[in-house]
Task: inverse folding
């Protein structure tokens, strides 16, 4: 009963709220010394929200104890799912990091193929062709029709 | 001159090849740009602006208006098909539009989006022609305290899109409100949660948050379990929207249009909140309440009429007062200025032909929107037939391009992915994403208007009840909250009874 | 199966060729064939704003002079800081330049302690337009001159407020500066600053009575003045501004206000090579003399005034120093 989604969400909200009130707001928000009125201070609004979050968190935890049913459809772990999710996280990080270096078009082609493999595509040949064509077509559109600056990277520049 | 004579004079100005061509071309450009995530209606209008410099004033402005209207509708196409709104205005359309695609009703959803958009567009244009003066005077009564109460009321929408648990909806909204505080403080200009990174000083980009929250979790779920949706065919479905369905949703569409007209005539709110408000009102009044969020056609009609209802009405403050209601109309003002036209009360006296020409053009634009939209949804709807193994990588690449293009910033792509993970955790925990989004849009408006009110009054809270408009919205807010609490308690009682009976 | 093999064989060659051209580009050969590819011009504000329209208008005649396309890149956010930082950190190869503006390059550096860039981080290749500043109140207000306004602020402290497009914007500083110039000792305490989001919001605030007055680019107020919704109190230039029936800073004997003008210019990172800066100075000169360009800009109320790289530098530095002195005197600096 205590590990249902209401309780865990409530607990997470409460922890986040305490973190905000005692760490993130004091260190992350600068309030000038000459603030005349507390309601005008930059910290006022974040503090109000954090307190509300804490209260809602407690309420959720309580309702979690008495909740009759947990309507969340459980996502059952499948074979290799944690490994695939971890690989996707790496893919996303590499995708963002590689854009300035390789350029958006080439990075997108590689990421397209990588994601297609991750989700075990049933059309590998089409995926490969699309991986080349889609980023190129998008590039042509954004760069030449909309006149935007698509990152080109350090190596191979497209016209 | 009477209104009819004015309109006839306006019609003469518009009834030529160039103007008609400009309108049609504008709508076409708008629909295509709107359908591409990242190319918002704003950007499409800004990119078209330089081409209008060389045209006749009326032709150029009609071209821009066409792009604007097409863009607002075009955004709903990817929102429905791939859960990625092309423009912020169409984010409410996702809620029921995408589930309809999953039910094999892509054609129906797109069709209803088009019909609702065109109807709302027409109503909005008529409102502009008939009530411009009256609504403009009303808009001038809106200062920060009035805005504050209006937005406070709008936040009660959250209850309507929370799904099963109101508490989870509130948590979701609070997350959105807190994330929206990142950036530079409005009143003092100091840093809030920026870690001294200039990218964070600008706050989180709205489109990046939007795409991250809705489209990326789908990809994560697919990676988590690639085979789970194998059997699911996502084909277009031969069903198109029927007239009976349109008739059933007609009341919702009209209500949505008027919500759009009202919010559109007040500068500074925009189409996204209007779509959400219309959606939650439709849900509250509908007999099919339970089906909302699971693929209810009325939900699509409500959101699309809510956002297109704004399109004509934003021209009310623009033409009657010279005030841009949003960024798009600010760009359109630029087009007026280039031709030495100053929108405002004097323009109705000095160049009524242009004003009434625009009115006629707007009416015609609703027709073009219908014609071009019909072709566009048939062309785009083939997206639903793409195998998922190809569609998902393509959506990811499209999201990255689109997200980058919004502000030419790679940082936004990172924000999009990060929000994708948050969205996925929320999905797993059954926390609805829509309240987050509404709060993220309205949160800064609520805080800014609150603090502006406090600055005006020197810190006295009395200003928040300074006039009839504020009283009106306070009353509405209180009534709504009481209703929410009562229905919540009623539900609990029913559940308890059911539970007791079971035992 | 034959086609893929070709592609395979060609790719390394292409990469080598690209790498070689990259090496060539980074060496001193730059200037001889500069520019050899499109130049990215960063606009630190969103599409449709005053800076964006100005930038896109000059890009037309300018790209003809440059000989390569100019790619307009909107990088908005944090009062122009995001776009400015992107150019500050860019390679000084002349392929990334900035449309700098009064807000990003004199008001912000003067007011914000935590700004992630400094004025010295940029090298200006020219300023091409000047925007006079005008102050205005609502048309039915009983305030008819700056003296009335200041008298009211003195008589009832806190009763006078001014709107701006945000902390550290030109509008924010301009209103404080004008009040100070007309004899209000402490404008920060005696008048209330009400920041709005964006210049349109600032003008609307005066129309709805949220704020008493505002000082903004004359071009953004022109249509309100013409429609008799706003009443101008002064313009900061020495010459009168068309359409504004208000005294100039010269008429009022306040020459210090002449420095209070908006401007738009083009800048690169501080280590931009001399020859590239010189080329841009030349291109700007030709582009700004284009008749069509002039007409379009003047229709929107801006004054075309070209400054050479040196002239730009001294003009901007002088404005920065004056703003900085005012900010320090009034205690308007944003710390943290």
Result:
């Amino acid at each position: 009963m205590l590990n249902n989604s209401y309780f865990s969400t409530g607990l997470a909200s409460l922890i986040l709220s305490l973190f905000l009130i005692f760490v993130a707001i004091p260190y992350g928000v600068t309030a000038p010394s000459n603030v005349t009125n507390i309601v005008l201070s930059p910290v006022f609004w974040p503090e109000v929200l954090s307190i509300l979050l804490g209260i809602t968190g407690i309420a959720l935890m309580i309702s979690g104890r008495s909740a009759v049913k947990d309507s969340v459809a459980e996502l059952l772990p499948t074979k290799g799912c944690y490994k695939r999710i971890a690989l996707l996280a790496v893919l996303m990080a590499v995708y963002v990091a590689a854009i300035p270096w390789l350029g958006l078009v080439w990075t997108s082609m590689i990421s397209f193929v990588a994601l297609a493999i991750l989700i075990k595509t049933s059309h590998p040949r089409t995926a490969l062709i699309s991986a080349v064509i889609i980023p190129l077509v998008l590039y042509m559109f954004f760069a030449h029709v909309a006149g935007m600056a698509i990152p080109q990277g350090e190596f191979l520049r497209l016209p | 001159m009477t209104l009819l004579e004015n309109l006839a004079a306006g019609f003469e100005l518009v009834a030529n090849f160039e103007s008609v061509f400009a309108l049609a071309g504008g709508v076409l450009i708008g629909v295509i740009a709107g359908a591409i995530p990242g190319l918002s209606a704003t950007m499409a209008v800004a990119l078209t602006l330089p081409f209008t410099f060389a045209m006749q004033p009326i032709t150029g402005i009609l071209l821009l208006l066409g792009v604007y209207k097409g863009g607002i509708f075009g955004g709903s196409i990817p929102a429905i098909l791939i859960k990625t709104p092309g423009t912020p205005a169409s984010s409410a359309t996702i809620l029921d539009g995408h589930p309809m695609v999953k039910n094999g009703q892509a054609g129906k959803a797109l069709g209803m989006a088009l019909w609702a958009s065109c109807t709302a567009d027409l109503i909005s244009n008529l409102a502009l022609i008939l009530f411009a003066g009256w609504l403009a005077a009303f808009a001038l009564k809106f200062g920060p305290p009035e805005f504050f109460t209006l937005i406070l009321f709008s936040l009660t929408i959250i209850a309507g899109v929370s799904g099963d648990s109101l508490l989870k909806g509130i948590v979701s909204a609070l997350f959105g409100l807190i994330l929206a505080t990142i950036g530079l403080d409005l009143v003092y200009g100091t840093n809030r949660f920026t870690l001294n990174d200039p990218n964070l000083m600008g706050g989180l980009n709205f489109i990046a948050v939007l795409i991250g929250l809705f489209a990326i979790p789908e990809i994560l779920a697919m990676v988590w379990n690639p085979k789970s949706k194998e059997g699911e065919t996502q084909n277009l479905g031969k069903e198109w929207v029927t007239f009976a369905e349109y008739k059933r949703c007609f009341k919702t569409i009209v209500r949505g249009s008027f919500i759009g007209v009202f919010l559109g005539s007040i500068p500074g709110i925009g189409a996204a909140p209007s779509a959400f408000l219309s959606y939650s009102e439709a849900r509250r009044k509908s007999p099919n309440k339970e089906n909302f969020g699971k693929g209810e056609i009325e939900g699509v009609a409500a959101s699309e009429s809510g956002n297109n209802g704004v399109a004509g009405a934003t021209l009310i403050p623009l033409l009657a007062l010279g005030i841009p209601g949003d960024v798009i109309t600010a760009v359109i003002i630029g087009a007026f200025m280039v031709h030495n036209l100053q929108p405002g009360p004097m323009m109705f006296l000095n160049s009524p032909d242009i004003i009434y020409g625009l009115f006629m053009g707007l009416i015609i634009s609703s027709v073009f929107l219908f014609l071009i939209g019909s072709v566009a949804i048939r062309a785009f709807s083939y997206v639903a037939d793409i195998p998922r193994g190809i569609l998902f990588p393509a959506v990811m690449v499209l999201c990255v391009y689109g997200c980058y293009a919004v502000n030419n910033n790679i940082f936004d792509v990172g924000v999009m992915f990060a929000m994708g993970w948050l969205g996925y955790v929320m999905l797993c925990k059954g926390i609805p994403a829509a309240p987050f989004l509404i709060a993220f849009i309205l949160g800064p408006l609520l805080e800014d208007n609150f603090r502006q009110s406090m600055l005006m009054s020197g810190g006295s809270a009395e200003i928040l009840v300074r006039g009839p408009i504020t009283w009106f919205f306070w009353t509405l807010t209180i009534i709504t909250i009481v209703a929410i609490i009562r229905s919540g308690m009623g539900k609990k009682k029913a559940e308890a009874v059911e539970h007791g009976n079971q035992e | 199966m034959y086609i893929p093999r070709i592609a395979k064989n060609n790719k390394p060659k292409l990469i080598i060729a690209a790498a070689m051209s990259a090496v060539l580009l980074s060496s001193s050969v730059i200037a001889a064939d500069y520019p050899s590819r499109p130049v990215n011009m960063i606009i630190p504000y969103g599409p449709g704003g005053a800076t964006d329209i100005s930038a896109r208008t000059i890009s037309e005649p300018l790209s003809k002079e440059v000989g390569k396309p100019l790619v307009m890149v909107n990088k908005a956010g944090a009062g122009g800081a995001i776009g400015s930082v992107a150019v500050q950190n860019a390679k000084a190869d002349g392929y990334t330049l900035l449309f700098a503006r009064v807000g990003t390059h004199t008001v912000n550096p003067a007011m914000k302690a935590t700004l992630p860039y400094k004025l010295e981080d940029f090298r200006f290749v020219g300023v091409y337009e000047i925007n006079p500043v005008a102050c205005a109140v609502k048309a039915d207000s009983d305030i008819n001159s700056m003296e009335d306004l200041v008298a009211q602020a003195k008589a009832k402290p806190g009763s006078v407020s001014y709107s701006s497009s945000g902390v550290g914007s030109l509008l924010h500083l301009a209103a404080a500066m004008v009040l100070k110039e007309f004899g209000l000792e402490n404008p920060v305490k005696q008048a209330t600053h009400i920041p709005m989001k964006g210049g349109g919001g600032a003008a609307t605030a005066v129309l709805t009575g949220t704020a008493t007055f505002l000082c903004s680019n004359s071009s953004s107020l022109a249509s309100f003045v013409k429609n008799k919704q706003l009443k101008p109190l002064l313009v900061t230039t020495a010459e009168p501004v068309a359409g504004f029936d208000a005294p100039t800073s010269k008429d009022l004997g306040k020459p210090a206000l002449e420095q209070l003008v908006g401007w738009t210019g083009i800048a690169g990172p501080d280590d931009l090579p001399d020859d590239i800066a010189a080329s841009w100075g030349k291109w700007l000169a030709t582009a700004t003399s284009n008749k069509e360009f002039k007409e379009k800009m003047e229709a929107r109320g801006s004054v075309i005034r070209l400054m050479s790289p040196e002239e730009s530098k001294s003009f901007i530095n002088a404005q920065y120093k004056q703003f900085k002195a005012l900010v320090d005197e009034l205690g308007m600096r944003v710390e943290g």
User: Anything to note?
Assistant: Chain C touches chain B through 60 residues (CB under 8 Å). The CA atoms of residues 5 and 91 of chain C lie 37 Å apart. The domain at 137-259 of chain C is CATH 3.40.190.10 (D-Maltodextrin-Binding Protein; domain 2). The two ends of chain C are 63 Å apart (CA to CA).
